[in-house]
Amino acid sequence: IFTGDGVMFLLIRGGILALVSTVAIFLLVVYVESTRIEIPLAHSAVRGARGRFPVKLIYASVLPMILVRALQANIQMIGLLLSGRGITLFGEYYGSTPINGVMYYLSPINSPYDWIPSLVRESFTGYGVPVPSMWQVGLHVLVDATFLIVGGIIFALFWIETTGMGAKPTAQKVFNSGMQIPGFRRNVGSIEKVMLRYIPKVTIIGGAFIGALTLLASLLGTIGGAGGTGLLLTVSIVYRLYEDIASEQMMEMHPMVRSFFGRE
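Request: output the structure for the sequence above.
Response:
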């Protein structure tokens, strides 16, 4: 008969939970990467030439999560430096791990050992310091969730505006390519209005979603302890590489395919 401790040992220490969560998140990210809104386009000079501008659900990719985690790491570094100088106003550290104070709540969740009560108790007992109560652990998870989701939205909006992926730069690129949106005047303003309907909203939704997904991966753990951000970045890079290879192959095969259908 399996006991609670036995199941916990099998899932956490046996790596089964990490394996399941890694596979599930991999499939989920691939699915979300392929989810998009396609804005129809038509060439203003070439009749019949049409295309689509895809606005992916994860429009800003997973890079905002790297910025969020980098911000958290910098906050922890400041707290660690202050603690090393004897200033424990914001919290104390055991090695590089915050054990109390504000810095404990601002530290990122990295694995089940940071939020499952029995594992938290085990970790803090090993440190020889007081074990956080249930409400403190819950608040820690809530703060990290807020950090990831709200930070994901803010950094996603920041990212698209600083990299030329916003509505206005995108509209200018579409206009310069000679394309227009059917049913609208061919000017940058008209294209920008349509882009404004989708890009900011999709960016906010995508930023919040990728933040929640990072939190889920961090809570459940990943194979090799890669962390939620590392796993999402890896999957995103692999999927985009696949898309690039498929796109290049299609462009290389396009004349052959066209001639083939021409003979038909």
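Confidence is low (pLDDT under 50) at residues 256-264.
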